[in-house]
Design goal:
By secondary structure, the protein is of the alpha+beta class. Helices cover 21% and strands 18% of the residues. Keywords: Phosphoprotein.
Length: 248
């Protein structure tokens, strides 16, 4: 077969790469379809640029993409490389030999400096990308506000600053373009939300750096006494009576 191609090891099927972008995944609309539950519906793209071929993990799968056993975000491919999409293994062929260091990943521009709050907003924005749905839309400003317990106006202000930092021009699908940029740069690997009981939260988790991120406290909760303990006794304090009983 002339030109670069990818061979699916389980089936032996050989698929020639498209001249520009070849999509890989479990969905019906991709170019290389892999019937494996560990593969996302839109898992990765294989891109051709002149004589060079590189693979890009789309960041839409929990299982990621590996080249010769090493996890990657974006990497130049050589003839004979084994690319694993989740647990589905494929082998590259027909790639011309070039003086390219295979250990060097193609990276986009250097990421801008981000505050902790901006990272929180980007993580919430990209969280839907963990779903198994292809072409999933990023979170809305209202969704982000609900997750971070802030106002929608505050989230929009953060998004405006992020658009400027990542140089996302005005236009349609601006949030989607920002999310794609962040995921392609490997800046955000969102995790499923984890419920943490309020009593186990420490000072670092209280989001008190700014007033807009402070969780509302019902009236009277801060001064409510717990049975057998005075209202001002913290979790690590004991009354004299309790200490006496422990000593005995």
């Amino acid at each position: 077969m002339e030109g670069p191609f990818i061979r699916i090891e389980d089936s032996g099927l050989v698929v020639p790469l498209r001249p520009d972008v070849t999509t890989v995944g479990r969905g019906r609309g991709v170019d290389v379809r892999l019937e494996d539950p560990s593969v996302s519906r839109l898992h990765a793209e294989i891109v051709r640029r002149g004589p060079y071929v590189y693979v890009v993990d789309m960041g839409l799968s929990r299982n990621g993409t590996r080249v010769n056993g090493r996890p990657i975000a974006r990497r130049v491919l050589e003839d004979g490389d084994v690319v694993s999409f989740g647990t589905a293994r494929c082998r590259m062929g027909g790639i011309p030999r070039e003086e390219v260091d295979p250990d060097v990943e193609l990276r986009r521009a250097v990421a801008p400096e981000l505050t902790r709050r901006e990272v929180d907003v980007l993580t919430a924005l990209c969280r839907p990308a963990l779903s198994d749905e292809a072409f999933v839309a990023p979170a809305t400003a209202r969704d982000i506000a609900g997750e971070l317990v802030v106002t929608e106006a505050a989230v929009k202000q953060h998004l405006l600053r992020l658009y400027q930092k990542f140089r996302i021009p005005e236009g349609a699908n601006r949030r989607t373009r920002l999310a794609n940029e962040v995921i392609a740069m490997g800046l955000v690997r969102p995790l499923p939300p984890v419920h943490v009981p309020p009593q186990s939260r420490g000072p670092a988790d209280s989001r008190q750096a700014t007033g807009e991120f402070r969780r509302p406290v019902p009236p009277g909760v801060a001064h409510r006494a717990v049975a057998g303990r005075p209202a001002n006794a913290g979790p690590g304090r004991t009354t004299a009576g309790t200490a006496g009983r422990r000593a005995s």
